[in-house]
Amino acid sequence: MTRILKVETTPIQGQKPGTSGLRKKVKTFKEPHYLENFVQSIFNAVGGMEGATLILGGDGRYYNREAIQIILRMAAANGVDRVVVGQGGLLSTPAASCLIRKRKAKGGIILSASHNPGGPEEDFGIKYNSDNGGPAPETITNAIYAESQNIREYRVTDTADIELSEIAEFTIGAMTVEIVDPVKDYRKLMKTLFSFKKIKKLFKNGFRLRFDAMHAITGPYAQDILERKLGAPKGTVINATPLEDFGDHHPDPNPVHARDLFDVMFGPDAPDMGAASDGDGDRNIILGRGIYVAPSDSLAVLAANAHLAPGYENGLAGVARSMPTSCAVDRVAAEVGMPCFETPTGWKFFGNLLDAGKTTLCGEESAGTGSDHVREKDGLWAVLLWLNILAERQESIREIMKAHWRTYGRNFYSRHDYEAVDSTAAGNLMATLEAKLSSLPGQCFEGETIKSADNFAYNDPIDGSSSTAQGIRILFESDARVVFRLSGTGTEGATLRVYLERYVSDPEEFDTETQVALERIITAADQIAGIRSHTGRSEPDVIS
Ligand code: G1P
Ligand code: ZN
Questions:
Q1: What domain range includes position 356?
Q2: Of 171, 378, 417, 481, which has fewest CB within 10 angstroms of its CB?
Q3: Span 252-272, pLDDT tens digits
């Protein structure tokens, strides 16, 4: 007999989900009632879970399995009909999105802190995705927060743990728990989008790829699809086993944390392509031999070439990028004559556009690209689309990039992150900047005259909702741009992100080193915002 316990609780401060759910230290999640309060708040905020199907899985980080057992007991006590769980408790974020859509689930709970490190002393996270497969919109995340601030009771059964390691079905009271192969449905979806035959031939002809799964969730997906289905040589996927602490690394595919991959790709025996994904499998980076493809450029190249893959052969309805993402894709959209939407940071803002069929491809500068096949960004999908394009074009990544810049010009782009900055200092920097926005146009810094300055506000063209204060953007007469915003996902102090961009149309300049090409803008950014004086930092922690 399954007993349902009603546990008395009290609200916990600060359970406000950010752009991608609630992220905190594992220790915080382990505090009494912490996880339970949040999960019950989700269930309450979406109007209860009676009779619902729920998708559940995570990136395998420390505390994943324990959290899954707690959520299963709470789901049963809240009247959920069926929970579909990835074997071993694993599901990449895009695969969870795929399952939510395929199973017509009410929603999904994904356990991940994305690219943040894992382990007992590190980060854990939880996010709720809605029935379209995408991150819950702000109306729901606000409701979750409101519930978490009023919660008095949560429901849980007193049942034992479920065995997650085998593909099987169990019951907890009236609820079915279905353990599924985490890769299968995702692989099937990829097969409908890409020519596996042509990619297979590419590998057969000796194309060499190095895919760094960073000991995170994409390992099993990449090994299955790239090595077993597409015939890439064994060993193409490295660091393929998901580990609870990601091998003591940050599963963040950037030039700092994916250093080894960069070294190989810029070394003497570099393969044709390098790629990496993050903790939960939604991000990607692409490198060619001796060249790094900036994510904003990758979005633009994919937009210009997607029609070469079967799933996009009829062209794209439109494209969308987050505001800080470079304007490279805008130029492709203008050329093709398709709409290009500019949204606030965070994948959830693409959901409405995708659902309405207004856009097919979306991307963010933070190594996220995706399409209407799911409602999340998708790391492996981007790698497969690149492979399909390479198979069709029979050119190197460098050649493709050069040809792209010759056609559209090059948007030099870089993001400078100042991490764990004192929150008050970071707040002051933004407030001071905000206060002088109207006086900036016409002023000149480092020879660059400011054309306009504002704090980005977005009106959703589909549901009419508005989001304000999404980042301060400063546009120069030359089309160069600098954007300042505070991260919504950092877990320590504040993270100041400075996004720098400069458009160049002269091919003579295309080979300039990015930081050199951006030198004037970098100096101007500091003069405008007083980064050094406010933060006390002389240089960024991460340059990507
Ligand atoms: C960061 C990225 C943003 C992405 C989010 C979730 O958010 O900048 O593009 O959508 O992670 O992966 P931020 O920390 O900047 O708020
Ligand atoms: Zn991620």
A1: 186-408
A2: 171
A3: 999 889 999 999 999 999 999
